[in-house]
Amino acid sequence: MQAVRKNSFSFAPFMRLTARDRADGTVVWPADETHPQPVPWAASLHTLAGGVGHNLNTWLAVILGNAFLIRQNLPADSPLLDMVDHVETAAKSAEDITKQMLLYTRRSLPNLERLDLSRVVWELEDHFRANVPTGVLVECHLDPELPELHGDPVHLRRLILNLFSNAAEAVGAGPGEIVLRTQSFYTNRPFHTGNFSQVFPEGDYVWLEISDTGCGMNEEASSRAFEPFFSTKFTGRGLGLSAALGIVREHRGAIWLTTKQGEGTNVHILLPCATTNDG
Q1: Mean pLDDT on 168-177
Q2: What's residue 278's pLDDT?
Q3: 271 alpha-carbon distance from chain centroid
Q4: CATH of domain 8-38+112-272
Q5: Which residues, in sequence order, are CB contacts of 143 under 8 Å at separation 6+?
Q6: How do the domains of the chain map onto residue ranges?
Q7: CA distance 244 to 227
Q8: Burial state string for 67-76 with b = 16 or more CB within 10 A and e = fewer than 16
Q9: Is the pLDDT of residue 181 over 90?
Q10: What's the burial of 275, exposed, middle or buried (CB within 10 Å: 0-12/13-18/19+)?
Q11: pLDDT given at position 193
Q12: Distance CA 175, CA 136 (A)
């Protein structure tokens, strides 16, 4: 029988990452990284998704409210209660999709506060342990001196959980490994990651990386990975990335991935540190 290492969580000092500079003043990232890329119809789709998500959210609130009132007025032994259960389950599933649409379009207002991303990851330890089979090793390497972010803790937890779920599904029953890492990052000049042509100013950032040894993606799939509701036949990679992009963008950050079919995927996230002007 193959020995399986226990899941591990460690707080340890890390070397500070620094962007690589080029002579012309731009910052260069490895060529095999996949960034969310703009497409001609992206702006129209963005507007459409936001409008549809907002309207659906309103209608679903009406459906759930009326289902609750019906339940309250039915006797405990009513055969109609099963139908009400089905209505509520379907409506809540649809509500979750609309929440992802609103996150993608940044129409879900964040509640920002100063927080430690290493602690946010650490507080999800029980979830990580409970949601992978025994053949999958989970490791968290968390910087104990990570600079604070100005972020929404609920949205950031959703971001981490979505990406972890993708990684867990990609690894499957194992054997395999999922690694979550936090680290500080500094650049002394503006840089560009290809994230919708966004340029990031010089300064301090927090680096979050979630990597797995799962099925990975081919070049075609990875180039579309951040499209809303895009999915592939490869388990675990297609759901959640558009919502993840929305959360990262609302925090003025960048997200990209490195992946190779049959070898796994690394999701990289860069978020700006809190400043003295942040709450």
Answers
A1: 87
A2: 64
A3: 12
A4: 3.30.565.10
A5: 11, 12, 13, 14, 118, 182, 183, 184
A6: 8-38+112-272, 42-105
A7: 11
A8: beebeeeeee
A9: yes
A10: exposed
A11: 64
A12: 5
Antiparallel, parallel or unpaired: β 254-260 and 264-272: antiparallel
Q: How many CB atoms lie within 10 A of CB 201?
A: 11
The per-residue pLDDT for 14 is: 47
The answer to whether residue 191 scores a pLDDT higher than 60 is yes
Summarised one tens digit per residue, pLDDT across range 82-134 is: 999 888 888 877 776 676 666 655 555 567 889 999 999 999 988 888 888 88
Judged on CB neighbours under 10 Å (0-12, 13-18, 19+), 21 is middle
Please provide the average confidence, as pLDDT, over all residues in the chain: 75
Distance CA 21, CA 34 (A): 19
Number of Cβ within 10 Å of residue 59's Cβ equals 12
